[in-house]
Amino acid sequence: MNLGALDTSILLAYLLGTLVFGVWIGRRPQSSSEYMLGGRNMPWWLLLFSIVATETSTVTFLSMPGISYAGDLTWLQLPMGFCIGRLLIILILMPRYFEGRVFTAYEVLQERFGAKTRRLASLLFLTTRSLADGLRLFLSAIVLQELAGIHLSLAVICLGVATIVYTFLGGLRAVVWTDFVQFVIYMSGACLAYLVLLDKIPGGWSTVESTLSESDKLRFFDFSWDFDRVGTFWAGMVGGAVLSMGTHGVDQMMVQRYLSARSRAQASLALGLSGFLAWAQAAFFMLIGLTLFVWSAGAEVASDRIFAQFIIAEMPSGARGVVLGAVFAAAMSTLSSSLNSSATTMTHDIYLPLWRKQADDSDELRVVRVFTIAFGLVQITVGCLGQYFASSVIDSVLAIAGFTTGLLLGLFLLGLRRLPVSEKSALLGFSIGLSVTTYVAFATDVAWPWYAIIASSSTLLGGMLVNRVNRAA
Questions:
Q1: Which of 109, 177, 311, 371 would you label with 194, given CA atoms 20 to 30 Å apart?
Q2: First-to-last CA distance in the chain?
Q3: Which domain holds residue 472?
């Protein structure tokens, strides 16, 4: 479709406003600490919205309604587990991050095991983050290509360059504040779309309620023990809890937000509340999917495209531009966080320890900004190359990105044990966990929510077993 002048103006105004905001945030001189961690002075409520916005991508925005459109509400058991996982992070991992003045999560691993383990964890994070978010940029560009009618590579470049600019200029402070604005934008766009959707259904909400009750679309709990299915109680509460401990407990993209808080208590408050806000957000997107089911009379449509098709066909001019801005906002909130956390990790865990053991603050700031651009270009390159990959390859790479946080969680849990564990044992435990999880992911039908618990437990138990054998020898 070709956008009208009003929709195009709204979309361009959003992009221009984002860039101006980044310039305004970065207008004053910044220290390297302020650039990477916001001066460790970010308020809890701002971090709360930043955490939720960062974990919400364009694919989530447009595809989550398709889950309930094609099924029911059982998927919401998974974010219930996310809430539990975040509370466990507050109790187990958060105290370690505030024991010193660390810049990355992986500095904690060096204190416990050694520099090799820290570099391994950092390189794993950088590799999987660049691949996963580059492909996420590609998937977002596909959606934007369909909605706006522009070339795929141009969509990738526009999203990537705009994100690089304000991340480069403003650092974490710009990222977090822009996350907040983008959260407001994409939720406003979703609410507007829902109001238009509801208005198109004769009888409005009463029709939606009665139709859903009659069609068994409101089922919430599923206590079956099918390990190849995502929407079960056990996959949600157990697998989801451990998965959240990995994605929000040992992933630098999230840990960097905690380290930027004014105190450990404020970081814990932001993380704890983010689980409930994320659940409420997921519930709203699934409500959109259920209402789309009523609107379409259950037509057989590709479920992950039903919301996008509604936006294209039914949203009036102007409103469509607002929702497109929401699509951009959901994409850029994740990508900016990825760039800033990757640049920080590369600077503090790889570059400075290996090549510049002594660097003043201005040199450090210059280096982290250079790496911000570098990782932005890497993600744009991956995004442009994504069109040449088979979809199965993309799914496989995203699956790898999902279980690597479980491997890192296993290393962190190994480091929390009271008995000393050698670095050799930790690295061999990591290798065992990687082997086991790779087999499970590609040779079995086990659903992805279980990857994190398999990865973390096999890494932990493998490291403990190797350490015991080494000590006995």
A1: 177
A2: 69
A3: 390-473
